[in-house]
Specification:
Layout: H1 8-23, H2 26-45, E1 57-59, E2 62-66, H3 67-71, E3 78-79, E4 85-88, H4 100-107, H5 110-126, H6 157-164
Helix pairs in contact: 2-4
The structure holds zinc ion (2 copies).
Length: 169
């Protein structure tokens, strides 16, 4: 826009990103990554969903899972208010995307403990905490958050109950 010019360095950087995306074929990677994630979710959660119902939606690496199923994974997802679907936008990490076993390790297995430990350490140093309630997605208000899983809750009775019964990774 004429009234909001973009500076040349920003444009050069954007062009650089596009060049890397083309050179590394990100669309192809995203679709492989999304496929591995979906396979993992379906394998892990299929017994919790009534037969015939979809447990994963979305496209490529944009993944949506039902709210109830999301809770199984101890993952901070994004929610649209009152939606029954949790949205995952996993960090594109090609190393983690090779297959659904690797995703399992990365998300709920041995690798995840270290990743969450790092996030907890960082939060402790900076005096921060998980930003939103893991159960209902509203801003997390309490200081009662799980240092193992890096999950917080908003403090309402229902969410506190859900939080207190979560099984640590
Ligand atoms: Zn809550
Ligand atoms: Zn925990």
């Amino acid at each position: 826009m004429v009234t909001r010019p973009i500076s040349t360095p920003v444009l050069i950087e954007a062009l650089g990103t596009l060049n890397v995306a083309a050179a590394e074929d990100w669309p192809q990677e995203v679709s492989k990554f999304g496929k591995a994630f979906r396979e993992f979710i379906i394998r892990y959660a299929k017994n919790d969903q009534p037969p015939g119902e979809t447990i994963v939606r979305g496209l490529g690496a944009f993944i949506a899972v039902p709210r109830e199923i999301n809770k199984k994974f101890n993952v901070m997802a994004a929610f649209r208010r009152r939606s029954d679907w949790a949205r995952w936008i996993p960090k594109l990490n090609v190393a983690a995307a090779v297959d659904s076993e690797a995703i399992k390790r990365y998300l709920i297995g041995s690798d995840t403990r270290y990743l969450r430990y790092v996030m907890t350490e960082e939060a402790n140093q900076l005096g921060t905490k998980p930003l939103w309630c893991w159960i209902c997605e509203i801003d997390a208000m309490t200081d009662d958050w799980c240092r193992t899983c890096f999950l917080g809750h908003c403090g309402t009775e229902e969410c506190a109950k859900g939080f207190n019964t979560h099984k640590c990774l």
